[in-house]
Amino acid sequence: MSDHRLETICVQGGYTPGNGEPRQIPIIQSTTYKYDTSEDMGKLFDLESDGYMYSRLSNPTNDRVAAKIAAMEGGTAAILTSSGQAATFYSIFNIAGCGDHIVSCSTIYGGTFNLFAVTMKRMGIDFTFVAPDCTDAELEAAFRPNTKAVFGETIANPALVVLDLERFANAAHAHGVPLIIDNTFATPINCRPFEWGVDIVTHSTTKYMDGHGTAVGGVIVDSGKFDWFAHADKFPGLTTPDESYHGVTYAERFGIGGAFITKCTAQLMRDFGSIQSPQNAFYLNLGLESLHVRMPRHCENGQAVAEFLVKHPKVKAVTYCGLPTDKYYELGKKYLPNGSCGVVSFEIKGGREAASVFMKNLKLAAIETHVADARTCCLAPAASTHRQMTDEQLAAAGIPAGLIRMSCGLESKYDLIEDIAQALEAVK
Ligand SMILES: *Cc1c(COP(=O)(O)O)cnc(C)c1O
Fold first, then answer.
1. Using an 8 Å Cβ cutoff, are 285 and 319 in contact?
2. Same domain, yes or no, for 247 and 338?
3. By C-alpha distance, which of 327, 326, 274 is closest to 131?
4. 236 and 307 fall within a common domain
5. pTM, full prediction
6. Tally of domains within the chain
7. 3-state secondary structure of 427
8. Is 299 in the same domain as 217?
9. Is residue 97 part of a domain?
């Protein structure tokens, strides 16, 4: 299936039914699995045979959907998680622990920022945040001997910064660590980070991949290209025996393409259990089947709304990398030649108050914390998702206090623009 084009993988990847089998991916709604002998079961617990032991670790429905996403990203293996947050946490905790350090872009999702700066810090993992446009010297200075990974977002939520993936990949690799990229906003339809040297990709599948506001979920995909043994001293969890599985060494037993995801399943899912339910995996797959049809429309609507807003006298600034005036237009052309996403952010003249009047007057676009849905929605980050951040942190994340993030759905762009125009009319 991975020989096929992306559109075909979206529709048919991950699952090929045999004669007389269900056409749609079956929902295996079972917590447990049955074995003929204790020895058969024992082999699973020693990671010696493939199969399912318990649905806290893995499930056949999830595995088929994960296989589809792995193929879409051009990776070797993937795991579904219960949320995007769980995917981000696992992607880092799989290779870093107490006493380790991570370099992260400062322009990241607010929930990810809290996870890193507060919760994972309490676990003893230190983060250095660097601006996406920092100088080479600043990026270089962020690394420490105990740095285990670099993290960023292809298109930052909500700052809409396009990250120079090649540059960050080169910096990470020069220090012998992988680059982990949250590809939620771009989706593999608009950017495949592995083609630019990225090693691990995560997604909040809650967003475009699901696309219908139906199920919270996440995924981690491994490119299968990072050589853990080449930097064995940095990644003992992958390159030395795991006593909790009779001394299996993941990078040896499962190879370069399988080690990361197998360890993630065998250890982190076993111990934390943030697995996606098979029912949610089924919904996610319905979304994936049309992702390649939906994304171009989200981009068309985003572009039209951005072009309308940028000319409007009540709008101070518009951020959308599809606008030639945008700071990230050139990087967008390089990494997102077919379009970025449907999310546009803009600042209304009059700050917080004007933003509030505008949003109250919208009729089609609903006020939601959500983004990347078939239905247009919007929010003011400083008053909601990012309200825990100080003004300095907001500024570092590229979020003015009066910013509005609008996620353009799949409605008619003409109706969306009319709705925005009448709501702007109400702003005095
Ligand atoms: C929403 C989001 C997340 C968190 O995902 P959840 O599924 O809500 O846990 C992470 N990264 C980005 C870019 C997001 O937009």
1. no
2. no
3. 327
4. no
5. 0.96
6. 2
7. coil
8. no
9. yes
Say how far apart CA 162 and CA 155 lie, in whole Å: 5
Same-domain check for residues 338 and 222: no
- 41-74 in b/e burial notation, b at 16+ Cβ within 10 A? beebeebeeeeebbbebbbbbbbbbbbbbbbbbb
Q: Encode pLDDT of 147-166 as tens digits.
A: 999 999 999 998 899 999 99
Torsion of the alpha carbons at 387, 393, 399 and 402, rounded to the nearest 10: 50
Measured from the Cα of 372, ligand 1's closest atom is: 15
User: What's the domain range around 320?
Assistant: 292-425
Residue of 202, 79, 209 whose CA lies nearest to 149: 202
- Tell me how far apart the alpha carbons of residues 6 and 299 are, in angstroms, rounded to a whole number: 18
Pair (188, 94) in one structural domain: yes
CA 97 to ligand 1 centroid distance, Å: 22
List ligand 1's pocket residues with C-beta within 6 A. 83-85, 88, 109, 111-112, 153, 157, 182, 184-185, 204, 206-207, 216, 218
Task: Tell me, yes or no, whether 321 and 234 share the same domain.
Answer: no
- Read off the pLDDT of residues 385-414 as tens digits, 9 standing for 90 and up: 777 777 678 777 667 777 899 999 999 999
Please give the number of the atom of ligand 1 that sits closest to the Cα of 156: 13
* Cβ contact 151:180 at 8 Å: yes
Asked if 128 and 230 sit in the same domain, the reply is: yes
Nearest CA to ligand 1 atom 2: 204
Q: Which helix (H) or strand (E) holds 294?
A: helix 291-310
